[in-house]
């Protein structure tokens, strides 16, 4: 059955791969993001199954008004993919840029929460719907410089788990996807403020996951029978594993 899938951050990386995958699987996609020209290119490539909608998830009024602003035939969103997000900087907390922290919280936490709140009522009323939230391994595995980024993703995980507690019995499902190192997106270029060489070095020889791999996981989770909720998927490349605890000896 064809579903209507709303994706935040569909202009690059995972979001774009999700759009391609869901359209290929016969679904309709509301593709959102700030870079509107990219959304129109996506529609030109994928056809009328894509509705491009410019949206900054930190624009609270635009998010609140979005459900009613959609064309009537696109308003029943079956799958909301809260994907828009970013890491800014990798400095230790004492040297981090406070505005970077605020931007990550506004996007990864407040934006995601607000989108969810905007679309949940119609899902609960219809007794069906999927909220797919993009967490990260950074939400459960701390690393130097991960400070606020990791904390926003820990929020995403616990918010998702609490949503499950609220939504039990409604038919609405909540799925958290927690990827590790994934190449082929703009994530590190954004984190390193446009330093493409530094970003590229991170993936060199690492055989990272790719956005299509994350799309495969999301498509699989959403395609499960209605009585199955895939709570969490944590996935990493085979080349990645958690590190040991550190002890800095003083003498
Ligand atoms: P990209 O940088 O390639 O894509 C991020 C997307 O988010 C872009 O489409 C961007 O669109 C959008 N976005 C950013 N800020 C806003 C905003 N204020 N309003 C609306 N859209 C916004 O990153 P990825 O595809 O790699 O990351 C997608 C998600 O996955 C993020 O939440 C990230 O934290 C998470 N993740 C990424 C991993 C990785 O290694 N790549 C691993 C684990 C999780 P635009 O600028 O046009 O608005
Ligand atoms: C992105 C993965 O390890 O760079 O969420 O934080 S990591």
Can you walk through the features of this model?
With 251 residues, the chain is α/β, with parallel strands linked by helices. It has one domain: NAD(P)-binding Rossmann-like Domain (Rossmann fold, 3-Layer(aba) Sandwich). Helices cover 43% and strands 15% of the residues. The chain contains eight helices and seven strands, in the order βαβαβαβαβαβαααβ. A seven-stranded parallel β-sheet has the order 3-2-1-4-5-6-7, sandwiched between helices. Strand 5, helix 5 and strand 6 form a beta-alpha-beta unit. Helix 1 packs across helix 8. The longest helix is centred in the middle third of the chain and has 29 residues. The protein is globular, with a radius of gyration of 18 Å. It starts with a strand and ends in a 16-residue tail after the last strand. The relative contact order is 0.13. The mean pLDDT is 98. The structure holds NADPH dihydro-nicotinamide-adenine-dinucleotide phosphate (NDP) and 2-hydroxyethylsulfonic acid (8X3). 2-hydroxyethylsulfonic acid binds next to loops.
């Amino acid at each position: 059955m064809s579903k209507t899938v709303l994706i935040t951050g569909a202009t690059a990386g995972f979001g774009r791969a999700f759009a391609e995958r869901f359209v290929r699987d016969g679904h309709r996609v509301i593709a959102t993001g700030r870079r509107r020209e990219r959304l129109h290119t996506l529609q030109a490539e994928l056809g009328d199954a894509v509705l491009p909608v410019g949206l900054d998830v930190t624009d609270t009024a635009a998010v609140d008004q979005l459900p009613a602003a959609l064309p009537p035939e696109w308003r029943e969103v079956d799958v909301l993919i809260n994907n828009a997000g970013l890491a800014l900087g990798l400095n230790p907390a004492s040297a981090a840029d406070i505005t970077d922290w605020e931007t990550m919280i506004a996007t990864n936490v407040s934006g995601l929460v607000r989108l969810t709140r905007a679309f949940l009522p119609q899902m609960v009323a219809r007794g069906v719907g999927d909220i797919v939230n993009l967490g990260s391994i950074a939400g459960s595995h701390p690393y130097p410089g991960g400070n606020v980024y990791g904390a926003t993703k820990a929020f995403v995980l616990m918010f998702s788990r609490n949503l499950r507690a609220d939504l039990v019995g409604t038919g609405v499902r909540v799925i958290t996807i927690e990827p590790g190192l994934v190449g082929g997106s703009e994530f590190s270029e954004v984190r390193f403020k446009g330093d493409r060489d530094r970003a590229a070095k991170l993936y060199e020889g690492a055989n990272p996951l790719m956005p299509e791999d994350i799309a495969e996981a999301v498509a699989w989770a959403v395609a499960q029978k209605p009585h199955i909720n895939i709570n969490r998927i944590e996935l990493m490349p085979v080349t990645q594993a958690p590190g040991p605890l550190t002890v800095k000896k003083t003498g």
